[in-house]
Every structure is written in C-alpha cells, then in structure tokens.
Design brief:
By secondary structure, the protein is an alpha+beta fold. It has three helices and three strands. Strand 2 and strand 3 form a beta hairpin.
Length: 64
C-alpha cells in the first residue's frame, strides 16, 4: 500500500495512476479525509442514480 498526500498526488498524478494498476494507493487530505485510488475495469458496472432507481422500480413491479 502506498500512502501519499493530496499535494504529492496532484504533483505526480500519472505516477500514481500507473501505480494504482498494481498497488493500493491511498490519498490523504487534512480537510477531506482519505481516499483509495481504484482503477475502473471493463468488468465493473457503472450506473447513475436515476437509471438504478428505474431498474429497481421495474424489478419490484415484475416481482409483484
């Protein structure tokens, strides 16, 4: 695991994006807390709130 400050991350973003492909990268900020940098893979599902809610409502209607 690599832990870096938000300042260090901003200065060297490319380095940490590449590093995140093989390691956990944690970015810390005094005012905003800590974040983990995770690459999005093809197998990941990205969906917005409106679409998710519509699918849930449709599923409930089908169930009933």
């Amino acid at each position: 695991m690599v832990v870096v400050s938000s300042r260090e991350f901003r200065a060297n973003q490319r380095k940490y994006f590449v590093l995140a492909l093989t390691n956990d990268v944690v970015i810390t900020s005094r005012s905003h807390g800590s974040y983990r940098l995770v690459p999005v893979r093809e197998s990941d599902t990205l969906i917005d709130q409106t679409t998710l809610e519509a699918k849930i409502r449709r599923g409930i209607e089908e169930y009933e």
